[in-house]
């Protein structure tokens, strides 16, 4: 297997984050550990992601639980605006997300 990272032909390389998004922030694992993500067709290294443990998982669950009351209070229309914006961003970046 190749240890050389494959070059991804991204239109917007800033979309390729090798961290976890928790509570509005990009984070690595507390212990700094990561694991490799490989292209199944070539075995080439695509990148790494943090190897989150129990503490990080609990933190993510607690953050999601804390965010829930505010989301729950939003009207269906307000939620639709957020989801539509997310949809539009995904469609704008569909080619990069597909890699």
Automatic annotation (TrEMBL):
The keyword ATP-binding does not apply. GO terms for biological process: gamma-aminobutyric acid catabolic process. SUPFAM superfamilies: ALDH-like. Signal peptide: none annotated. InterPro entries: Ald_DH/histidinol_DH (IPR016161), Ald_DH_N (IPR016162), Aldehyde_DH_dom (IPR015590), Aldehyde_DH_Superfamily (IPR050740). The keyword Oxidoreductase applies. Keywords: Oxidoreductase. It holds the Pfam family Aldedh. GO terms for molecular function: succinate-semialdehyde dehydrogenase (NAD+) activity. Gene3D superfamilies: Aldehyde Dehydrogenase, Chain A, domain 1. GO terms for cellular component: cytosol. Residues 27-98 form the Aldehyde dehydrogenase domain. Belongs to the aldehyde dehydrogenase family. This is Aldehyde dehydrogenase family protein. It comes from Burkholderia contaminans.
């Amino acid at each position: 297997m190749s240890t050389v990272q494959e070059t991804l032909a991204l239109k917007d390389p800033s979309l390729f984050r090798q961290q976890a998004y928790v509570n509005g922030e990009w984070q690595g694992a507390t212990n700094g550990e990561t694991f490799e993500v490989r292209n199944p067709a070539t075995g080439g290294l695509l990148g790494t992601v943090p190897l989150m443990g129990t503490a990080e998982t609990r933190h993510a669950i607690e953050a999601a639980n804390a965010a829930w009351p505010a989301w729950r209070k939003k009207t269906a229309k307000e939620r639709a605006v957020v989801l539509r914006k997310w949809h539009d961003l995904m469609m704008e970046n569909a080619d990069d997300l597909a890699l």
